[in-house]
Write a structure and sequence with these properties.
Blueprint (H helix, E strand, L loop, with lengths): L4 E4 L1 H17 L3 H14 L1 H4 L5 E2 L2 E5 L5 E8 L2 E9 L4 H11 L1
Parallel strand pairs: 1-5
Antiparallel strand pairs: 2-3, 3-4, 4-5
Helix pairs in contact: 1-2
Length: 102
C-alpha cells in the first residue's frame, strides 16, 4: 500500500522530548542522537508500515537503536503515530497511555 502522509498526535512530541531529555542527562549529545535515531525510524515507516505485529490494537515497531517502541495505526493512505514509549515500562502503564490517545 502506498501512503501519502505520516501524521503524529501532539503527545508524540512530548514522548520524543521526554526520551531526549532522559538520554541527554546521561551523556551530552546522546539526547540528540536519540531524537535523530527515532526520526529515522519514523521515516522508515514509508516503506514498512503495516508489517509490524499489533499490540493493544496498534501496530508496534521497535526502535532500531534504543529500547523504545513506536505505536501507530493506518487510516486510508495515512500513517498515524500514536505514541513513542520506552519498552521497559510497566505494560499496564503502556496500555493506559495508548488507551487515552485512541
Amino acid at each position: 500500500m502506498k501512503f501519502s502522509k505520516i501524521l503524529a498526535l501532539e503527545e508524540v512530541q512530548f514522548d520524543l522530548n521526554e526520551g531526549e531529555m532522559f538520554y541527554e542527562m546521561r551523556s551530552p549529545g546522546l539526547g540528540q542522537y536519540f531524537r535523530d535515531s527515532l526520526i529515522s525510524d519514523l521515516q522508515s515507516l514509508w516503506l514498512y508500515a503495516g508489517i509490524h505485529s499489533k499490540q493493544y490494537g496498534f501496530y508496534r515497531m521497535h526502535a532500531s537503536r534504543f529500547p523504545y517502541a513506536i505505536y501507530y495505526h493506518l487510516q486510508n493512505t495515512a500513517i498515524i503515530i500514536v505514541a513513542i514509549l520506552d519498552m521497559p515500562q510497566n505494560p499496564s502503564k503502556t496500555f493506559s497511555k495508548l488507551k487515552s490517545r485512541s
